[in-house]
Amino acid sequence: MRIVVTGATGFVGRYTVAAALARGHRVAAVLRPASSGRELGPLLDHPGVEAVRVDLRSRAGLVDAVRGADSVIHLAAAKSGDFYTQFAGTVVATENLLWAMGEAGVGQLVAVSTFSVYDYKSLDGGTLLTETSPIDADPVKRDEYARTKLLQEELYREFGSHGAVPDPSPEAEPQAPEGRRAVIVRPGLIYGRDELWHALLGAELGPRFLRVGAKATLPLLYVENCAEALVLAAEKLAENPSLVSGETINLVDDDLPTQGRYVELVTAVMEPPPSLFVPWPVMRLAADALDRANGLLLGGRAKFPGIVVPEKLHGRFKPLRYTNAKAKRLLGWTPRYGTEDAVRRAGGDADLLSELASPAGSQRAHG
Amino acid sequence: MVDSPLPTAPLTAAVIGTGGISQEHLSFLAGRTAFGPVTDRVRLAAVCDLSPAAARYAADTFGAPASYTDLGRLLAEVEPDVVHVLTPPSSHVPIATQCLEAGAHVLCEKPVTACRPELDALLAVAHRTGRRVMESQNYRFNTAITTIGAAIEAGQLGQVREVEVRIALPVTDPGGRFGDPNLPSPIHAMPAGVIHDFTTHLTSLLLALAPDVTWDRVAAAWSRHGDNELFRHDDLDALLVGTGPDGAVHARLRFDARTFPDVFTVIVRGSGGTAETDLFQPYLRIVRPRPGGSKLSPIVNHVVNGFGMARSGVRNLGQRLVQQGQYEGLHRMLDLAYTALVEGGELPVTEADMLAASGLVDQLLSREVAL
C-alpha cells in the first residue's frame, strides 16, 4: 500500500513511517514546508519514502499530497500553544486533510485520537476504561489538547460516519459516504526513547518533579507497539473494512505497570529528575479543596495549573483499569514488546528506527 | 452621506474571522462583559469563517444561532446591522466593502487598511451607503490610558512635551504565529510587514495623548535585526517633533523584538509632571506637584506611587489568576460603539481618528523620513 503519514517527523510519526516500511508499504511522509526532515534521519532517503511538504493548516497542495494514497494515518496535531494555536494545528488541520482526501478520492483513514478525550472525572476509581466509556461532553475545564482532540474526533466521526460515541446503538449509526472508511484509534500514553519520563508520573515543580501516586496502573503504549498497531489498522481497513470501519479502538500494552514499578524500570536506564512525592488521595483532596475555594470565593474564574484542576488531575492520575481486547480482536495486534523490553529498548541503541537506518535494514524493509 | 434612520435596538451583529481576537469580540456580544449584559443594544446573530469547524465552534461557544463559511450568504440571509471584521488585515478592504454594500455597519480590527488612500476609498463607500466604519483602537480605552488622558485634561501634567509608546514582543520566534516559516502570516505582505499589526496601536495612542499636534518632522528607522528572513522589518525606531498649541512636542514610537520582558509602555512627560504605564502589566505612575509644596511633593509622590504599584501588583496577580488579558478597553470601546450606533452619537473612534492614525503610519513608512 501507499500510506500517507501526517506528523511524520513527530515522535510517533517516525516510528510509524518505520513500521510501515518494515511491513513492506510505501510511505508518503508529510513534513511541514520548512522542516529539514532530520528527525527522520536516514529514513528520509529510504527508497520507500517520499517526503511531501505541506502545512495542513492550509489547503494549498493538500489534494496533491494525498492523491494516489491507499490510506492515511493522521498523526499530526498541535500539542502546545494557546487554544487557537492548537485549534489551527489540530482541528483546522484535520478538517483540511479530510477535505483533501475527499477531493482526491482517498477514503481510508486511520484517525489517531487520544485517551485524553475520556471524561475521567465521571469515572469511579478502579473502573475498566473501554471504548464505550464516556467522553468529555463539557470539556471547558480540560486543557487545550483535550478540547481540540475532542473537536477533532467530531470531524473524524463525520468523515467516517461513526455512530455517536460512546452510544453503541447500531440502528442510530449513519452510513459512511461511499468509499469512506475510518477507524478511530485512541492510544494511551506513548513512551519510548527520549520520552520515558512523562506527564502521568507527575508535573514539574520548579527545579523538582512532583510525583503524584505510585499505585495507579499506567495506560502505557510503547511507541514501536503503537506504530505497528497503526499500520495494522490501515491494513485491516483495506483487507476487511466491514470489521474495523466505523470502530473506535483503544491501544495500550499488555503488561501495564503501576507508576511505582514503571519508575523502577525507567530508573535503570535514565537518571530521573529530583522528585517530591505526594500520594494520589492527598493530591485529589488538595485539588478538590482548591476547586471548592475557587467556586466559593472567585466564582470559579481562577485558572490554576493543571495539576490542581480536578478535571485535569483525574485524567492523569486516577487509578483505573485498561484493556486492549478490542484492538487485539479487530486488528489482530499483539504488542510486540513487553514493558521491561520496551524500556530497555528505549534506553538503549537498538530499536526499529536504528534497524531501518542500517543499510541491511533498509534493503530488508524495501524488499 | 446618505441619511439612514437609526436602527432599532437591539442590533443584530455578525462576526467574520474566528481567530484569537474573536473571543474578545464574541464574549462582548455574548454579554460576557465586566459591566454586564449588552443585549439591550446588540444580539449576536451569526459567525463566519472559512473553516466550517472554526465557525461552528465559535457559534456553539458564544451562542450564535448560525454559522457560515460564505460571507455573501450570511449577509443575504442574516442581514446583520453590524459586522465585526476580524480577518487578516490584507482582507479587510474587500470584506468591509462587501458588508457596507450589503447595508451593515463595520467594526474592523486594526489596521482597517494598508494605507491612507485605501482608507479614504473605504470611507467613501461608507458615506455612499450611509453606513459607518470603525477601526478597533482598543488600547485607547484601557483604564490606564483613559486615566492618563484625564490627568492631561485636568492639567495635572502641565503642557505635554513628550510622548513615548513602546511595544516589545518576540514576534520573530519561529514557533510563533508571525515567525512560523511553515505558513507565513499574511501580515508579512503589509507595507510595514508584521509591525503593521502594531502601528495602529503606536500611532493611535500618540494621537490620543497629544491630539492637537502637527507632526512637522518625522524620522523612522525600519530595521531587521533578527535572522528570520520572513521579516522585512522587525524593529521600528521613530522620532517625531511636532507643534502643538503650547509649543513643541517630541515623540518616540518604538517596536522591538529583541528585549525582555514583553512590554507596552506609554510615557507622557509634561511641563508639570510625568505619567507612565505598561498596558501588558498595568500600573500607573504619576509624578506631579502634590499638596505640601515642592519640599513634600517628592515624598508624597513616592508614597502615592508606592501604594499604587503595590495595588497594581495585587490586581495584576488576580487578573493573571483568572487569565484576564489586556483587552479590557476593547469591551469598553465596543460598548460605546453600540451605544453610538443605537442612539446616533459619535463613534468612540471617529473617522478623523482613523484618518490621522493611518496618515501617520503612511508618514512613518514614506521614503523621505527613512533613516
Give me a quick take on this structure:
Chain A is of the alpha/beta class. Chain A has helices at residues 11-22, 62-66, 83-104, 144-160, 223-239, 241-244, 259-267, 280-298, 310-317, 325-331, 339-347, 352-357, 359-366, and strands spanning 2-6, 26-31, 49-53, 71-74, 108-112, 128-129, 181-187, 189-191, 202-205, 208-212, 220-222, 248-251, 275-278, 321-322. Chain A is globular, with a radius of gyration of 20 Å.
| Proportion of residues in helical segments of chain A | 25-40%
* N-end to C-end Cα span of chain B: 41 Å
Structural class of chain B: alpha/beta
Give the integer mean of the pLDDT values of chain A. Answer: 91
N-to-C SSE string of chain B, H for helix and E for strand: EHEHEHEHEHEHEHEEEEEEHHH
- The number of helical segments of chain B is 10
In the predicted model, the low-confidence regions of chain B spanning at least 5 consecutive residues are none
| Low-pLDDT segments, ≥5 res of chain A | 163-173
How many strands in all of chain B?
A: 13
Radius of gyration of chain B: 21 Å
Order of helices and strands of chain A: EHEEHEHEEHEEEEEHHEHEHHEHHHH
Largest beta-sheet details of chain B: 7 strands, mixed
User: Strands of the biggest beta sheet of chain B: in what spatial order?
Assistant: 8-9-10-7-11-12-13
